[in-house]
Amino acid sequence: MNKNTLLEVSIVIVNYNTSKLVIDAIESILKYSVDITYEIIIVDNNSKDGVDLLENKTKQYDNIEVLKLSENIGFGRANNEGVKIAKGQNLFFLNPDTLLLNNAIKILSNELDNNLNYGACGGNLLNENLEPTRSFRRQFPDILWILEHTFFFNIPELIRYGKNRFFNHLNKKMNVSYIVGADLMIKKELFDQIGGFNPAFFMYYEEIELCFRVKEKGFKVVSIPEASIQHLEGKSTKNMKFKATQHFVSSNAYFSLTHSKFNVFLVKVIRLILITSRLLLFSIIRKKHKIEFWKQQLTLFFNRK
Fold first, then answer.
1. Using 50, 70 and 90 to split pLDDT, how confident is the model at 243?
2. Per the count of CB atoms within 10 A, which of 28, 57, 122, 202 is most buried?
3. What ranges in the chain are assigned the alpha helix state H?
4. Is beta strand 136-137 parallel, antiparallel or unpaired with respect to 178-179?
5. 96-145, pLDDT tens digit by residue?
6. What is the pLDDT of residue 181?
7. CB atoms < 10 A from the CB of 26, how many?
8. Distance between CA atoms of 219 and 148, rounded to whole angstroms?
9. Please, what's the largest Cα pairwise distance for the chain?
10. 189 neighbors 112 (Cβ within 8 angstroms)
């Protein structure tokens, strides 16, 4: 492949000790992706194992490149590094723990190419058992979202959106707030224009904040149910304490970037109520693992930067 050739899609996969999963993801791409020009860019976040296996498996393909980083810089920043060498007019950010189930890349790329007002899109995600799993959300995290989660266990969201609140059962395109980062496709020109993934995030919330900026630019973010992808959620991140910490830190960063100082203050007050009430509840009913989780959240709350 000519290095200067403009392609339809650049597929960017971030790897951190998930080389076997990445190989499976690549095989599904090679199997299902037809009638479309694409490249695969694997950005390795200084993995400690499996990289040699990954390089040996991919060196036979001239449209697959492994970009090795000297340190683990997180999900969004690693994707940004991959984009620097990308030659596709559309960018497809794909998790290592995913498997294509049809020609999803062409389906999504065609939608972006044929609709000038579409900025980003994604398909329907299915879990390990091929059951519907979180593919998007219909609203951005905000004060209302925090209140509903804290006091009403998201029941209002269920009433508003029903079974289509995070998975597209309608079999037609649907405008959403954001696409889950496991299979997010965006126009490269737009990605460059808005500055890519915000480096403030190491892991989690980076795709939400990116889609927030896409919509601020006046573009739509769209669920395309015809594109089908299996997401083996959790296979790539097994350290639950690390996950909880990163989720907490990234949530704080998201609200700081997208909300006023007063709203950020309100979010912190509501979050403290949530943490203390859950800690009290699980202490009363003696759920040890839940108590430890909410103790960690309380520690994070008071130690946050």
1. confident
2. 122
3. 19-32, 51-58, 75-83, 104-114, 143-151, 155-161, 188-193, 206-216, 240-258, 261-284, 288-303
4. antiparallel
5. 999 999 999 999 999 999 999 999 999 999 999 999 999 999 999 999 88
6. 96
7. 22
8. 27
9. 65
10. no
Q: Residue for token digits 């499976």?
A: 24
What phi and psi values does residue 84 have, to the nearest 5 degrees?
-60, -30
Left, alpha or beta for 84 (phi > 0: left; psi -120 to 50: alpha)?
A: alpha
Number of Cβ atoms within 10 Å of the Cβ of 144: 12
Amino acid at 143: I
Greater pLDDT, 245 or 67 = 67
* 3-class secondary structure, 218: coil
Please list, in sequence order, all residues whose beta carbon lies within 8 angstroms of the beta carbon of residue 209, skipping any fewer than 6 positions away.
198, 201, 253, 254, 257, 258
CB contact at 8 A, 109 and 185:
yes
pTM above 0.70, yes or no: yes
Q: Are strands 220-231 and 118-126 parallel, antiparallel or unpaired?
A: parallel
Beta-bridge partner residues of 126 = 132, 230
Residue with tokens 């083996």: 232
